[in-house]
């Protein structure tokens, strides 16, 4: 196989497995097209070892657009453990991967350092996205999912991946940050997939370079990313930064460290890599649902909410709900017989809530809580805000919203990629789409004979007006969701299924008190 060839390999389900006998990640249409020369041409590198490969001003601009879109993406965002991030030492953040592009954006928007990313090869070659990903310093990776299907030669893979690994290691050693996802692919499962070793090999190399140059030891940070429903727009998010994993002694032999400093990628000792991987797994697993299924995780949430109610409280935030479910999981695994006896009723409650489109927040001391009047009436502000915002929102973002909805619902990359389309529309819309209606308004103003000063003022005001109208529409959506939830809750509460929930809740609470 010539490196210069464009390889098109099988996309979709094909039953391919890796050398462990596990199913390889299913390839999307984009991932199945591997253009090695284009990948190598699109990659950016720093002028000196350790320099960030991105364009600084471009990165800063795109991070600003990311933060704006990120705030729009989620209804609530809570971040804990930020004290574990270092302002001096380089950082490798590792997390499980269930939400496509949104997962790395969590770190772009919440860490002060410039991040450099390694990602799937088409990240820097696909239309539109590739232009931006390349200029913020994205580094391409040819995964086993592509290589074991014949997507590139071993020589091309070693060249591309080795350069990426060395770039990441040098950047981390010199104080930059990166985020990598050791599962190697985004997915929709309720537990982690087998961890790949790429992130561990990079951070060990970074530690070796830092040790040779007398720089600070890099931080290896495990992070829990908790989404209420990862593929929903305006869901809740908790980012849980854990304490760093020590890298003391995790370095290459002396002769290999010299080769790293000379710009040659050298694999670290396998035993060291595996030890770090095992510790990452041990630290990350409790920060994920770690359930056999989402139904089982839903049951733990029911138990967690009911135990809080039994103690006279209420989980006020998504973080508190996650922690309550985590404690229920851990206590069940420790042999708590009271919780084990409550599992069948909790499963029935969880199934009934899920079928009605609501969750454990709807539970109260007597079964289902009574819907709040302000939630029932939330349809009124939803209509008012929506109608006020509609004209400018349609002009500025109508096509974006329709396109994101259409593409997100029809993506061949799974539910976990759905919100990627929502996010990109919100992030890139002001940059690529808004100039068109602004130009149209300004042209119309000139043709109507308005002074150029007024036209200039219009050009300045319109982006803020578009932003305000979008926020009004987002708030209208939030009010609508509140009203819809109240309606569903009231309907379930008055049904035989609601009576069954009340009976089960009463029994579980009696056992937990």
Q: Could you outline the blueprint of secondary structure elements for this entry?
A:
Blueprint: E1 6-8, E2 33-35, H1 36-42, H2 56-73, E3 74-80, E4 91-95, H3 102-110, E5 118-120, H4 129-135, E6 139-141, H5 144-147, H6 154-173, E7 177-180, H7 198-213, E8 219-227, E9 235-241, H8 254-261, H9 270-284, H10 294-310, H11 318-333, H12 337-356, E10 363-364, E11 367-368, H13 373-376, H14 379-410, H15 418-432, H16 435-447, H17 452-493, H18 496-512
Parallel strand pairs: 3-9, 4-7, 4-8, 5-6
Antiparallel strand pairs: 1-2, 8-9, 10-11
Structural write-up:
The structure is a single chain. By secondary structure, the protein is an alpha/beta fold. The chain contains 18 helices and 11 strands. The strands form 4 sheets. A 5-stranded mixed beta sheet has the order 3-9-8-4-7, with helices on both faces. A two-stranded antiparallel ribbon has the order 1-2. Strands 5-6 form a two-stranded parallel sheet. The termini are far apart.
């Amino acid at each position: 196989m010539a490196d210069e060839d464009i390889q098109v390999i099988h996309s979709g389900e094909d039953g391919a497995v890796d050398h462990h006998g596990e199913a390889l990640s299913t390839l999307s249409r984009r991932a199945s097209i591997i253009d090695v020369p284009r990948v190598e041409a699109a990659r950016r590198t720093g002028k000196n070892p350790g320099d960030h490969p991105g364009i600084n001003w471009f990165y800063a601009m795109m991070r600003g657009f990311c933060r704006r879109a990120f705030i729009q993406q989620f209804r609530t965002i809570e971040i804990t453990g930020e004290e574990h991030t270092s302002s001096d030492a380089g950082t490798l953040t590792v997390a499980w991967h269930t939400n496509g592009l949104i997962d790395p954006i969590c770190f772009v928007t919440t860490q002060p350092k410039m991040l450099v990313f390694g990602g799937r090869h088409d990240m820097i070659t696909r239309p539109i996205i590739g232009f931006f990903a390349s200029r913020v310093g994205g580094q391409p990776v040819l995964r086993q999912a592509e290589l074991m299907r014949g997507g590139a030669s071993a020589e091309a893979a070693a060249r591309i991946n080795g350069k990426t690994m060395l770039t990441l290691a040098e950047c981390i050693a010199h104080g930059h940050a990166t985020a990598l996802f050791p599962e190697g692919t985004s997915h929709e499962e309720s537990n982690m997939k087998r961890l790949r070793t790429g992130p561990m090999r990079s951070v060990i190399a970074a530690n070796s370079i830092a040790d040779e140059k007398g720089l600070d030891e890099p931080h290896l940070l495990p992070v829990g990313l908790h989404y209420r429903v990862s593929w929903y727009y305006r869901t809740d998010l908790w980012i849980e930064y854990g304490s760093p994993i020590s890298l003391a002694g995790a370095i290459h032999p002396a002769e290999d460290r010299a080769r790293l400093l000379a710009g040659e990628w050298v694999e670290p000792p396998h035993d060291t890599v595996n030890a770090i991987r095992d510790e990452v797994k041990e630290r990350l697993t409790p920060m994920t649902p770690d359930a056999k299924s989402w139904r089982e995780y839903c049951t733990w949430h029911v138990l967690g909410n009911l135990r809080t109610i039994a103690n006279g409280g209420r989980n006020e935030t998504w973080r508190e709900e996650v922690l309550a479910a985590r404690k229920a999981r851990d206590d069940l695994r420790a042999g708590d017989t009271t919780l084990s006896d409550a599992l069948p009723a909790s499963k029935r409650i969880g199934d009934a809530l899920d079928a009605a489109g609501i969750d454990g927040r709807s539970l109260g001391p007597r079964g289902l809580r009574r819907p709040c009047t302000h939630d029932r009436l939330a349809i009124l502000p939803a209509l008012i805000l929506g109608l006020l915002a509609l004209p400018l929102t349609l002009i500025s973002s109508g096509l974006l919203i329709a396109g994101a909805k259409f593409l997100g619902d029809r993506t061949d990359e799974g539910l976990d990629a759905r919100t990627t389309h929502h996010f990109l529309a919100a992030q890139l819309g002001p940059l690529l789409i808004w100039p068109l209606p602004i130009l149209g308004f300004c042209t119309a103003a000139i043709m109507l004979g308005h002074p150029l000063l007024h036209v200039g003022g219009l050009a300045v005001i319109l982006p803020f007006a578009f932003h305000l109208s979008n926020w009004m529409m987002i708030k209208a959506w939030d009010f609508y969701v509140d009203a819809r939830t109240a309606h569903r809750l009231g309907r379930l509460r008055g049904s035989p299924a609601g009576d069954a929930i009340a009976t089960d809740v009463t029994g579980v609470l009696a056992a937990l008190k």
